[in-house]
Amino acid sequence: MGESRFEELRRYVGFDTEDERLLAHIRPIVLENTETIAAEFYRRIRRHPDALAVFRDEAQIERQKGSLQRWVRRVFSGPYDEAYFAETSKIGHVHVAVGLPQRYMLTGMNVIRVELARVIRTANDDQFDGIMRAVNRALDLELAAMLDSYFWALLHRAQEAERVQASRRADRLAAIGTLAAGLAHEVRNPLNGAQLHLTLVERGLENKRVSTQELIEAVQVSKREVHRLSNLVTEFLDFARPQPLSLRPADLRELSDRVVATMSADAAAKGVSISAVGPLGTVNADVDKLTQVLLNLVRNAIDACDKGGSVVVRTMKDATTCAVQVEDDGVGIADSSMPIFDPFFTTKAAGTGLGLSIAHRIVSDHDGTLGFVSRPGRTVFSVRLRAAESA
Ligand code: HEM
Question: Engineering a disulfide at 353: which of 115, 311, 334, 344 sits with its beta carbon 3.0 to 4.6 angstroms away?
């Protein structure tokens, strides 16, 4: 069996059985004076706000005077064994836990040292030098064990911080991996489409057995796919590298009216009626970005009405919150547990799966929430934002 930490410390400090004998010898004098020692100890602490700050109240200080006196008795009584060392370490941990800066441990111990020397000198004992050497060794042991607690606590904290950071890094890498896989998947479809149709064009031009009309159609499909790729890249950058918000007071109802006007032609083309209703309500918002959110929700709502129907953009407000709801009477979202806000999740053949992720990100950036409820025939997406302070 190797030497324990305590044995090693004892040996380093040079604390031996002669020291134990001298501490026991002077114990009666010291025990008569523990109250004045504790009083001086706390008188010093009171002069230092940083030190005093670790106490909750006066009652705790009074209780601590008792703890300190019991501790002095212990230092002069032993037995100086493993259990003794464990108790000292525990006291050290209590101080780490209450947030006592380490420097007060050193200076505090010195106050005790000086007080003990003063008390012991009054005994006029001819072994004074030996006794003081024993006291100093005992106090050094105490201090070493208590500071050990600080060391281990700090090490533990640093390791914990490192662990948290490593796990965050791993999460981030995993997220980037998922995103990259999603992007690659989305890029491949239009690329394949364009390639296929360009090959068709190439063959047609070589053997002239394809009509001009067919050639034009193949080129148009290719162009559409390239356009889709270009949109995908723009949206992806929107999602992956959001620009900072530029906030100003904006009225949700005005915004809703503008979005409805913008989308009315698309809606009419699908036989969908669209309207905005509800009160005015001011929020602090990045108008362009919030418009983008509403356009996205309204476009989805119109898409959901595949046999005509109606879309209503409804504003609401109370004392603290303004909300916009986009409601449609279309097919509904089959399963409310689908990760519709995850990037690249889509149920549409031509969707990038980024629209709702971007919308969610933008609303979160506004400290707002974006949620939905859905059943066949009624789907409502709600954007809730903090109302701007009224002037
Ligand atoms: C340097 C020598 C010191 C010794 C020997 C000492 C001794 C003790 C002891 C024996 C306890 C009780 C531990 C337990 O509950 O198990 C304790 C707790 C405590 N000590 Fe010290 N202490 C010292 C320094 C300080 C200093 C400098 C401060 C503040 C400035 C301080 C503030 C406290 C506080 C706040 C507690 C916890 C009280 C509680 O749990 O209610 N100590 N100390």
Answer: 344
Predicted confidence at residue 391, as pLDDT, reads: 44
Residue of 197, 196, 187, 264 lying closest to 232 (CA atoms): 187
Cβ–Cβ under 8 Å, residues 131 and 97: no
Tens digits of residue pLDDT in 245-274: 999 999 999 999 999 999 999 999 999 999
Residue where one domain finishes, among candidates 162, 194, 225: 162
Q: What is the pLDDT of residues 97-146, one digit of tens each?
A: 888 888 889 989 999 999 999 999 999 999 999 999 999 999 999 999 99
* DSSP code for 81: S
For residue 386, list its beta bridge partners.
Answer: 321
Q: Which of 47, 55, 67, 75 to mutate to test the pocket of ligand 1 (most atoms within 8 A of CB)?
A: 67
Contacts of 371 (CB under 8 A, 6+ apart): 381, 382, 384
Q: Note whether 257 and 376 are same-domain residues.
A: yes
Residue 156 and residue 21 share a domain = yes
Of 240, 257, 281, the domain-final residue: 240
Query: Are the beta carbons of 120 and 130 closer than 8 angstroms?
Result: no
Q: Ligand 1 in contact with 91 (CB < 6 A)? A: yes
CATH number for the domain harbouring residue 313: 3.30.565.10
Q: Say yes or no: 320 and 346 in one domain.
A: yes
Whether 109 is in the pocket of ligand 1, judged by its Cβ within 6 Å, is yes
Kindly state whether residues 293 and 225 are assigned to the same domain.
Answer: no
Give yes or no: residues 41 and 127 share one domain.
yes
- The encoded tokens of residue 41 equal 């100890």
Count of domains observed in the chain:
3
Q: What's the gap in Å between 54 CA and the centre of ligand 1?
A: 10
Residue 105 gets the label, from left (phi > 0), alpha (psi -120 to 50) or beta, of alpha
Answer whether 100 contacts ligand 1 (Cβ < 6 A).
yes
What is the pTM (predicted TM-score) of this model? 0.58
- In this structure, what CATH number is given to the domain that contains residue 151? 1.10.490.10
Point out the ligand 1 atom lying closest to the alpha carbon of residue 52: 30
Average pLDDT over residues 69-75: 96
Q: Which domain holds residue 368?
A: 248-386
Assess if residue 168 is contained within a domain: no
